[in-house]
Design goal:
mainly alpha, 11 helices, globular, GldB-like, DUF885 domain-containing protein, signal, 52% helix
Amino acid sequence: MNHAVRSMGIGAVLCVWSASLAAMAADAVYVPVRAATAGSVIQTTDVDRFYRVYDAAGGHPTAEQIQRDYLDQGSEGLQVLARERNVTGQRIAYSRNAAEAVGRELEIETRFAADIDKTDLSDWVYNATPDTPGDLGYWVGYRIAKAYYRNAPDKRQALRDIMDMEDPKAFLEKSGWYPGIELD
């Protein structure tokens, strides 16, 4: 992980990858990706594709399914984002966050909130293994982005705000998220 992200603290985690999954917008919204490829965009159809893969697998897609049916089939923008953030089907599948976190939202998110200014992210990201869940920072980030999107009156602008987020603490404050928030 590069020093710039580390120096922003755990709050930077909230939208690294999970923001693209949190978006639940109408078709044909294009959101710019800040990546090496000029003009790359993530399309909301990428979000729809993720949920189709997830639902078709009963909420437990394999690493191969995620890679083949979601990442490899995604827009150029999604592929650029995955490449830039080192996201693979295996890393997504091993996180198993949602299933492991159900019923523990308050506990996990209270710990996350207490760590919000830490620069050591090892308790929250890049810690998944095939035998243990990890990367709960992405799961919390997904929930923060989801709260932001739900509370936004303009959903298209909310997508742009999520993808262009530059100030994690201001974004968190505007999201309306708090540990244990009820999100269905």
